[in-house]
Design a protein that fits this description.
Blueprint (H helix, E strand, L loop, with lengths): L2 E5 L2 E3 L5 E8 L8 E6 L6 E6 L5 E3 L7 E6 L4 E6 L8 E7 L2 E2 L3 E5 L2
Parallel strand pairs: 2-11
Antiparallel strand pairs: 1-3, 3-8, 4-5, 4-9, 5-6, 7-8, 9-10, 9-11
Amino acid sequence: QVQLVESGGGLVQPGGSLRLSCAASGIDFRIYGAGWWRQVAGKPRELLATIGAAGNTQYQDSAKGRFTISRDNAKSTMYLQMDALKPEDSAVYFCHVAAYWGQGTQVFVSS
């Protein structure tokens, strides 16, 4: 049974940082590319960044310069370091590996 469990979300002030984690189990995490997405209620899910099995990364414009995706294959875990957070970054953040999604973790940026 494949499970992806996100953690690290929460409330942060504008300009602050959070690091999200996505722990994978039941899947050979190291052979798959993976990505981080986010969704605001009533809007489509938005791709932020992807990381290939070899560690190559790509970022969408909304994530460039402020977000960093990384992975630790030994821990079957992917990360999203988010810096200089803005209120418009408030959303539910999801990880995606192969055909699987995590349950999401809420990020709320507000003073």
